[in-house]
Amino acid sequence: MTATRKYTLKMTAMYLMSGALFVLAAAGTFAARRYLVSFEILMYIAIGIFWGLAVLFGLFLLPMFFRRTVIYLSSKEITVHTGLFFLRRIHMRMSAVQYVTLVTLPFSELSGFNFIAVRALGGSLVLPFLNKVDCDEIISALHGEIAGRG
Amino acid sequence: MEQSGRQHGVRLFSYTTKYFWLLLIPLARSFYSLSFRFDALRVWLRGAWLDLFVLGAIVFFAWIRWLSVGFSFDSEKITLQKGVFVAMEDTVFYSQITTLSIKQGALYRLLGASTVYIATNAGVFDRADVTIVMKKSDADSFYKAVKGSREKSLNYTTLPNKLRLILFSALFSSALSGVLIIIALLLETGEVFDREIEARLFLDTLSEAVNRVAVYVPPMISVIIIVIAGAWALSFISNLVMFWGFSLTKCRDSLYVKSGIWTKNRHILLRSKINYIDIKQSFLSKVFNVSSLHANCSGYGSRGRDEMSVVLPITTRKEVNGAIKEVFPEYPRPKIELKSLPRCYPGFYLMPLLWAVLPAVGFSLAYYFLPEWYVVAYPAIAITVIPSVWLALCKTLSMFITGIGLSDGYITMRYSRIFTFHTIVAPVERIAKVIIRQSPFQRIGGTCSAIIYTCSDRKERHYIYGLRLDRALAFFDRCGIDLYYTEKGR
């Protein structure tokens, strides 16, 4: 591997999480309407919080995180650009990588719930919500680098 | 010549702890008896056979486990066999051992046993890869075997001046770390208000001491004096006990460290595996130009074993520089080229401010809800505010020294972490990860924080606050670290 490869996060994961947040907000609203009907003010506050959080995370924070997170992989380093309020540029030397942990959830090929934790001597780096193809490519690149050290 | 054997018999007792849960069975049985019968004792005695059986089972399991662990070593490697049903064998070549530590506490000295810790750059982080309790004679032979595998060369040995060690330990003991322990104790006491007797006992003792000193100084000041003096004494004694009889010998490829009064420690460090050196100073020692030299090497100064990664205990900066020249001649003199910007100075006070505000808010609430505890809360606030004032002082000094530099392929990082000032020199290739972080304010000001992770068997992050972004990027570019900053997102 010589050239630098650029990877972005799988947007399906974001749509699923945003959708789940709105479903949860609807469920919370239903529960509040049913069980907090005697405490009207509390009920409206609870509903407001549910929908506020759903809108904040589902329409702003999650899309912002997914749009801002980019992974660069070369034979020398792994670089991740990420962050919401605090912008972070993370660099990890390939030579420091000791081993790799792959975490996949059921139906991750479709959903994009594939994560790679890169363990280095002195720190680790999580590459979240990867496309399955990208995930396999990154894993094989990392394994190749580790095995190549002899 | 190959030598083999079993662990020292004393290891049997440490294995028993794993099966202490079995004692729950007779305990539950006794509880059952006491609850429902008048002649509980007799019933309990009649049931003692079960207790004895369980105790026997504990000893038996420990014996089986002790029996299943064996070791053998020769001139180039050690092999460790373990397992009852599944046999496992670990082989570690001496050339891969980053740190070999042999410890002998007072009890083990009486029993003729030593604990041997073998660490490499692999395996579980911040834990020795192999821990084994050997007979002292076996441990000595093993130490000799590892020593024999290392290069023979002319040695450089340094023995700290004992008088200076006592003096500097007394003057520069980190009293604040002791204060923090006592604050934790106070808070712990505060958390258990319902356990009034215990709380009263602690407070009565304190108030008795305060009354005696109060003849000369006001009670409030007395409490603070007692807390600081106690903390200082704790810190001083622990420093002295740890570093008495310290010696460092440097050979071509290894460092040999010996220290301790009660616990005798011996370490062999592989020089090529040392990740970085760290010149540590407290606020006072910074002002008086006194410091201690530490080295980060996998397995040395493990937190779990209450060790410090010292290669030269507290002494004058001149001596530390001399030791660096002799022991680490390839390391350049620390040089800072990129410092914190004056416009970032207010950010240094964020942490002390939080430290001051949080206890004050907490105790105001406590006073509001528990007004009768005002007598306790009032001095407690004063005590908890001391560290924040001290931290503000440290941060003020830190503003003028924080920065990074690069020379001869080595990076220098100078910063303060809580009350300790660090000057770290590390080969550039030992940088594992770099984060350039910008808060919204830093984005407006064009500044950033650099968080540098160095290779280590535990997470070691060095936080350099308030650098100019473009200069920081150019600096890391020179280090061969490309942060792809000009690249756009998706």
Please tell me about this protein's structure.
The complex is a heterodimer of chains A (150) and B (490). With 150 residues, chain A is an alpha+beta fold. Helix content of chain A is 50%, strand content 27%. Chain A has helices at residues 11-35, 40-68, 108-111, 132-148, and strands spanning 5-8, 70-73, 77-82, 87-93, 97-104, 114-120, 123-127. Chain A has a 4-stranded antiparallel sheet with strand order 1-2-3-4. Chain A has a 3-stranded antiparallel sheet with strand order 5-6-7. In chain A, a hairpin with a 3-residue loop joins strand 2 and strand 3 (77-82). Chain A starts with a strand and ends with a helix. Chain B is globular, with a radius of gyration of 27 Å. Chain B has helices spanning 11-16, 24-36, 40-46, 48-68, 106-111, 136-149, 162-172, 175-191, 196-213, 219-243, 283-287, 317-327, 345-348, 350-369, 374-401, 440-445, 469-478; strands at residues 3-6, 70-73, 77-82, 88-93, 99-104, 113-119, 130-135, 156-158, 247-250, 254-259, 264-270, 276-281, 290-296, 310-316, 338-339, 403-407, 410-417, 420-427, 431-438, 447-454, 461-468. Chain B starts with a strand and ends in a 12-residue tail after the last helix. In chain B, strand 16 and strand 17 (410-417) form a beta hairpin. With 490 residues, chain B is an alpha+beta fold. The model of chain B is unreliable at 187-197 (pLDDT under 50). Strand 4 of chain A pairs antiparallel with strand 19 (431-438) of chain B.
Find the count of extended strands of chain A (DSSP E, 2+ residues): 7
Task: Give the CA-based shape of chain B.
Answer: globular
> What is the helix fraction of residues of chain B, given as a range?
40-55%
Number of helices of chain A: 4
* H/E topology pattern of chain A: EHHEEEEHEEH
Order of strands across the widest beta sheet of chain A?
Answer: 1-2-3-4
CATH architecture of the largest domain in chain A: Roll
Cα radius of gyration of chain B in angstroms = 27 Å
Distance between the termini of chain A: 17 Å
Query: What is the CATH first-level class name of the largest domain in chain A?
Result: Mainly Beta
- CATH superfamily of the largest domain in chain A, by name, is Pleckstrin-homology domain (PH domain)/Phosphotyrosine-binding domain (PTB)
Tally of individual domains of chain A: 2
What composes the largest sheet of chain A? Answer: 4 strands, antiparallel
**Global mean pLDDT of chain A:** 90
Structural class of chain B: alpha+beta
Largest interface: A-B, 29 and 34 residues
Number of helices of chain B: 17
Instruction: State the oligomer.
Output: heterodimer
